[in-house]
Design goal:
Layout lengths: L2 E5 L4 H12 L3 E6 L14 E4 L5 H9 L5 E4 L6 H6 L1 H21 L4 E7 L22 H20 L2 E7 L1 E3 L17 H9 L6 E4 L11 E2 L1 E3 H11 L8 E5 L5 E2 H12 L5 E4 L8 E2 L4 H7 L8 H14 L7
Helix pairs in contact: 1-7, 2-4, 4-5, 6-8, 6-10, 8-10
Protein name: UDP-glucose 4-epimerase
InterPro entries: Epimerase_deHydtase, NAD(P)-bd_dom_sf, UDP_G4E
Subunit structure: Homodimer.
Amino acid sequence: MARFLVTGGAGYVGSHVVLALLDDGHDVVVFDSLRTGHRSAVPEAATFIHGDLADLECLNRVLADGPWDGVLHFAALSLVGESMQDPMLYMSANAGIGFGLIDACVRHGIKRFVFSSTAALFGSAGDEPISEDTPVDPGSPYGESKYMVERALYWADRIHGLKSACLRYFNAAGADPAGRAGEDHRPETHLIPLVIDAALGRRPALTLFGQDYPTADGTCVRDYVHVTDLARAHLAVLPLLNEKSVTFNVGTGRGNSNREIIESVARVTGLDVPWQAGDRRPGDPPCLVASPKRLMAATGWAPEFTDIDRIVETAFAWRKDHPQGYAD
């Protein structure tokens, strides 16, 4: 059994990774400010510490209570549109606080660090699957802030020997198949829960941002990776960090357009989805699809949920059972 610190472990992806670590028999400590996370998303089997990464005194007390077998870092702001309106907020909240965490890990002798990065590093990658060799060209301050943390981790390894895994997620989606965790952002900005809520009549008609992208149906195409598959990827990379740092794209290798998501929700729920066309949203590339081949070859990881309807089924089941999200 190993012991891990998970920052942002009360959030969407972080809480699912906490479940995966616990299922694997590990000891987990969640450090979260609850700014965007939910206390009830943290399983009882995990230890919870309410704290802010900007509070370095608190952070250092936590890290001093070792030993730690690794730190997994999820705490961040993550709204592309908001970052386009307030870029310095994202630079300070994501990059600046990330630098402080990395520095603290180095000083406390942490040897392994897993970072929640993003496909938003690739601003205009075209319609081919994106490999790790695709040039980084962030289309938003959000993507830029994540890349700055990746660069800090590069230097932390080169100078101090902190081994890290930068996992560049594509679109995390779905919910724990056993119903233990789900997606509850406030405000909600992810497409699948928004479409589900529109179908259930819990929100007004959905607005699709942009109908004139250079894609098959004119709407944005994204690679939707199930959050449980994403969580398994974090566990899969940990053994590699005993020897070297790694960077991987995490996705399924296939994309679905915004309209295809609407069609999938309609199939799964049997409900009509009211929607309307809207203008493009600043910072949104037409197509982001991962090539996960390098991760698969290095770890043996492979996505279990490769059909969009299966992903939507888990999201719908949790959303239906939790109409108020974690407030239920």
